[in-house]
Amino acid sequence: VQLQASGGGLVQAGGSLRLSCTASGRTFSSYSMGWFRQAPGKEREFVAGITWSGGSTYYADSVKGRFTISRDSAKNTVYLQMNSLKPDDTALYYCAAQNALRSYDPRGRYNYWGQGTQVTVSS
To answer: Which residue, 14, 33, 36, 66, shows the most beta carbons closer than 10 Å to its own?
Structure first.
């Protein structure tokens, strides 16, 4: 599975962005998906996750109520809608795929990673 993330950019605090992650291949529905981010000088952190069916979603406390993860299996794409952005949300955002053979562990090991898309929030 190859993952291509897009949609990052520069936005003012309080603004919105929608990230997309498109997967190659015909097995997209076999993977639960996650979004992670890494700010300069910080470790990579979990942001949001969604099960292979789309039936369950998970969020980091720092983004609950502001970010929404969703997926469109017909388009092999997972989205991250980010509202009420803050300067602390500035980071390189990655999407990742976790094989759904086992129960989804949002903060566990992922099998595939995308290349990242930069989000910069100005104050």
So the answer is: 33
- Hey, what are 37's tokens? 């981010």
Q: How far apart are alpha carbons 52 and 104 in whole angstroms?
A: 8
**10 Å Cβ neighbour count for 4?**
14
Written as one letter, the residue type at 25 is G
pLDDT tens digits, 92-103: 999 999 998 889
CA distance 103 to 24: 23
Cα(44)–Cα(32) distance, integer angstroms: 19
Residue 29 has pLDDT above 90, yes or no: no
